[in-house]
Amino acid sequence: MNTLRSITIALCIFLCGHALAQTQSMDAELSALTEKLAAQIKDHGSKKVTVLDFTDLQGGSSELGKYIAEQLTVDFVMTKRDFSVLDRANLKSILAEHKLTATGLVDPENAKKLGQFAGVDALIIGSIIPKGQTISLTAKIITTDTAEIVGAGRAEFKTNDTIQQLLSRPATENPIVGSAGDLNNDVPKNDVPIVVKSFGDLRVELQPLQIVNGGRFQLTMTLTNQ
Question: How far apart are CA 223 and CA 207, in angstroms?
Answer without folding.
Answer: 12
